Amino acid sequence: MKSIHSRLLLMLLGFIIVPYFLTIFIIYAYTKNSVEKYELNNSQMQLEKNAEDLQQYFDDMVNLPYILYRNPDLFRIFTEGFEDSIYFDQDSVEKSIETFYLTRNEIRQLRFYLNEGKESFTVYNATVSTRKSQPDLLNQEHIKQLFKSNKNYVIELPHVIKNYNNAAIIPESDRTKVLSIHHKIKEVPSDKFLGIMTMDISLGEYSKIVSNLAGENGSSAYLINDQNEIMYATDASLIGKRVPSDLQNRIEKGTTDKEISLTKTLDGPIEGWKLVKKTPSDVLFRDVRKTATINIIVGLGVGLLGLLMISFISYKISRPIRELSEKVRGIEGGHIEIPFENDRQDEIGHLERHIKDMTDRINLHINREYKLEIENRRNQFRALKSQVNPHFLFNALQSIGAVALRSKSPQVYGLITSLSKMMRYSMQANQWVTVQNEVDYMKAYLNLQQARFGKELHYELNFSDEVLENRIPSMILQPLVENFFKHVYEEGYYEAQLTVSGELKGDSLYLVVENSDGPEITQSELDRLRENIYRSPAEGTPVNEHIGLKNIYQRLILNYGKRADFLVDQPNGQGFSVTIVIPKDSRDEPRV
User: Fold this and answer.
1) Between the CA of residue 342 and those of 183, 316, 326, 328, 362, what are the distances in Å?
2) Fewest CB within 10 A of the end CB: N or C in the chain?
3) CA gap 515, 425 in Å, rounded
4) pTM of this structure
5) In the chain, what is the straight-line distance between the N-terminal and C-terminal CA atoms, in Å?
6) Is the dihedral of CA 331, 333, 339, 343 positive or negative?
7) Partners of 513 in the beta sheet?
8) Which residues cross the membrane (predicted)?
9) What is the b/e burial string over 509-522, where b = at least 16 CB atoms within 10 angstroms of the residue's CB?
10) How far apart (Å, rounded) are the C-alpha atoms in residues 441 and 424?
11) At what angle do helices 204-214 and 18-63 cross, to 10 degrees?
12) pLDDT by residue (tens digit) across 480-537?
């Protein structure tokens, strides 16, 4: 049999802990999915923003050389050559060149190639170098690529800054990595080739844009040109190299379980280039997993506390029930005298009080049944002593009655008939009878006494028909009538009057046996008589006086309990009366 504690614990677990953890997991799954989508969207938006910034930056840098077309002095050195144009205003030209150099902070070096004289000069740190003839410059790889291209510019892979003219203005210690943009200078509108301007720019500016894409969460970012070469990467060792095959495979695979890959193909001056962001899944979702882990740990902690609270609550609820169950088992085992708590004001206390009342009633019932059994055995013993061959006695009485009739003695026959009725009624001891039966028995007895005392016997029986129909234990009035003859007539009080009456008052039946003009008793004698009658058999030494009255009282208590009353009194200071008060019309099983 499962205990209430275990069932209550399982119920609380089923209705509290399980739904709680189920809710935690549902929230975790929903939160993880939402945060993953958010991170992906956020990364995609960041990629789009950085792509726009890169396109704008390179658009600015590629279009920067067009400033030359708006400066007549600078443009003239391309159209007429440096030797001729210098006579216009050499200081103004150099100043214009220096101003152009200082236009952007990321410009590290400028090279001007003049096709008119096949010579070039450089600008480094806002200082113009001497001119140097370079007739083979157009045969260089990136210059050839520029001529083959339909575009006016070509972007060279990042490399360490070069001293194009071996000018003394560039120190050998400068190992800055730069990105070179080679731009064709043409005459407008004839498109005549005039020269080339090369800008070496530091990687710092556009590398910030790419690096910001990677952030600090372990991601990696790559800027790859249309030739599948790395223009920039968070891994500096890859800058200026072709994309490794393993990285190429990872980019082509895109997003996997272990890695989130985002690629944006760029437009504008860097059309065909790719901006790639690769983030390990555990890094991208680190925060959400950390949050989920914290939630699970907190959930486990709360669950553990919940288990402890549930165990404590179920124990506190089931403990009094278990103790009450153990007490009931003790009662089943025959241990009646079990202490019960009376200070509890809840349902358990209510049950304990009722069980205590029930055990008290059981104890009283057992005690009454035990006493009734003893009394019944005594009555059976008395009946055995008195019932000496009852058939013989009845037959003998009938024979005597027949002789009396043949002898023409009807009075003798009447007395024998009364005696026979009394004997027959006495055989019905230990049974319940109507008041009418008890009255008939008294009439038979009084008939015999009338033959003995003659006209000196004075008695009166007052019972209504309603009273006569009630059932009472047998032989509770007859002993009182016998006491009248024993203590009144046999002691010479022949003027005494015997009155036996019965009446109904509410739900109680009052039976009164009273004698008037009988012997007087003192108050002390009356008190001693009452004490003897009402004393429990277990209290003190039994007293043989007035045993009939005591027996009637005990039988009433055994049959009716506290609902019965037995009153002895001396009305008007003379005579003696006994009043029996019992519930009317009782239908209980006979216990007499």
Assistant:
1) 105, 18, 17, 16, 19
2) N
3) 25
4) 0.50
5) 45
6) negative
7) 500, 578
8) 7-30, 294-315
9) bbbbbbbbebeebe
10) 9
11) 170
12) 888 888 888 777 777 888 899 999 998 999 999 998 877 777 888 888 888 888 876 5
Question: Which residues 6+ apart lie within 8 Å of 563 measured at CB?
Answer: 582, 583
Residues 6+ apart with CB under 8 A from 220: 214, 233, 234, 235, 277, 278, 279
For residue 450, the one-letter residue type is Q
Spell out where 147-291 has E strands: 153-155, 159-160, 177-186, 193-202, 220-224, 230-233, 259-265, 274-280
Task: Enter the DSSP assignment of 561.
Answer: G
Do the Cβ atoms of 494 and 459 come closer than 8 Å? no
**Long-range contacts from 54-57, C-beta under 8 angstroms, 24+ separation:** 54/206, 54/209, 54/210, 54/223, 54/266, 54/270, 54/275, 55/266, 55/267, 55/268, 55/269, 55/270, 56/268, 57/205, 57/206, 57/209
**Distance of alpha carbon 189 from its chain centroid, rounded?**
86
Low-confidence ranges of the chain (pLDDT < 70): 1-5, 7-9, 12-13, 15-17, 82-89, 216-217, 283-289, 292, 314, 318, 331-349, 370-373, 375-409, 411, 420-430, 536-546, 586-592
DSSP count for the chain of H helices, then E strands: 17, 19
Selection from 268, 226, 229 nearest residue 247 by Cα:
229
Identify any residues that bridge with 459 across adjacent strands, giving them in sequence order.
498
What is the helix (H) or strand (E) element at residue 120, kind and residue range? strand 119-124
The type of residue at 534 is: Y
Tens digit of each residue's pLDDT (9 = 90 or more) over 48-90: 999 999 999 999 999 998 888 888 777 888 887 766 554 456 7
Q: What is the CB neighbour count within 10 angstroms for residue 143?
A: 19
DSSP 285-315: THHHHHHHHHHHHHHHHHHHHHHHHHHHHHH
β-strand partners of 120: 113, 132
